[in-house]
Amino acid sequence: MGRIRTKSGKVITSKPSPATVVKEEPSTQSLLSKAQSLITQCNYELSQKFIRRILERDPHHVDARELLGITQLEMGELEDAKKTFQSLLSPTRSTVVPASAHLYLAQLSDEDPNLALKHYEAAVGILHNQLKGKERADAPTDADDSEESEADIRKNIVKVLVAMVEIWMAPTYDLCFDPKAEETCENLLKTAFETDSNNIDALICLSSFRLSQQKPEEAKQAAIQAWSVWKDEEDESKIPAISSRIELTKRFLEVQEYAAALHVLQTIMATDDQDVEAWYLEGWCFYLMAEQAKETNTKIEELSWEELAKDSRDCLENCRSLHTNLEHPDDKLLEHTIELIGQLDSLGIKPTPEEEQQEDDGDEWEDLPDDEDGDGDIDMS
């Protein structure tokens, strides 16, 4: 834009022609934010366009390369994703290797458990360094933010340690037959509790591990402790993820703590009443209770085996319907659901008519006391 003085002495301002206007390039941060937003929207192809614009400016941009790997992973380009995450393992002078790169590579190494364990070990090392403050970038100055950041790192460390225990315990791998498997799992869990003493996922993992050792009482106590951490929590942000609550439900079923399992399932239904696995587990829980009541010729929570079986049938029918409507990928879950429905049908147990279900839904188990379970009384506190 120029200034021109006329013969009369007046100063006028000239407007630039459109051709001379230079459009400001978006900042790297704005491109990164846009790419992240598109990933959240599952628009991976468009997200990649923004990511590649960042990488044209800075081929070694860590966050951009990580996002590129995530989009490739989501699009099923597993080999490309693996190469992208591997490229993050060579740090430059201005960057460090992100723990997330090792975590993704561990998940992509499911056919090689030893390689997966190496990546998990590397991730734990990086996270421990962050916990010590050695490699933490952009350290927050606010005390509350600092505490929250430390808590997040501790939770992430425990998640990795739990993943390592699960690899050692997995029957699909030969590692579970290794003479040092049990001791290794004990040490990993010990480190997990030293890192975060009341971590729910670690307690659930401990319960599973004790079951594998044929120590049902210790497994039950670990599951109860995991539940006690959050069962009276009013802050929804502190309630564990649905996946963790699903696993806790499974542990309760395995140790025959049926009332506790139903309580946990109610919290899942309150969050998502279309969770297919939750409906399956509730149906399976009522089925086990009905089986127990029939075998002992007793009532459980004042319900006969026929009433419990009918509740089971209704839950399983809901599970089957949702599985089909939502195109749920777990075919084995559907197979077992259909098998259980067939067994109930052979016993003469028919589903409740839909109009009756709507009237009675949730009434029978709404006010269960915390100290009762399907096979006796127990203090859950």
What does this structure look like?
With 381 residues, the protein is mainly alpha-helical. Among the domains are: 26-95, Alpha Horseshoe (Serine Threonine Protein Phosphatase 5, Tetratricopeptide repeat); 232-381, Serine Threonine Protein Phosphatase 5, Tetratricopeptide repeat, CATH 1.25.40. It is 63% helix and 3% strand. It contains 16 helices and four strands. The strands form two sheets. It has a two-stranded antiparallel ribbon with strand order 1-2. The chain has a two-stranded antiparallel sheet with strand order 3-4. Strand 3 and strand 4 (376-377) form a beta hairpin. Helix 2 (44-57) runs antiparallel to helix 3 (62-74), helix 7 packs antiparallel against helix 8 (181-195) and helix 12 runs antiparallel to helix 13. The longest helix has 27 residues, at 143-169. The protein is globular, with a radius of gyration of 28 Å. Mean pLDDT is 88; it is low at 134-138, 141-147 and 364-381.
Give the arrangement of secondary structure elements:
Blueprint: E1 2-5, E2 11-14, H1 28-40, H2 44-57, H3 62-74, H4 78-87, H5 99-107, H6 113-132, H7 143-169, H8 181-195, H9 200-212, H10 216-228, H11 242-254, H12 258-271, H13 276-296, H14 305-325, H15 331-346, H16 354-360, E3 372-373, E4 376-377
Antiparallel strand pairs: 1-2, 3-4
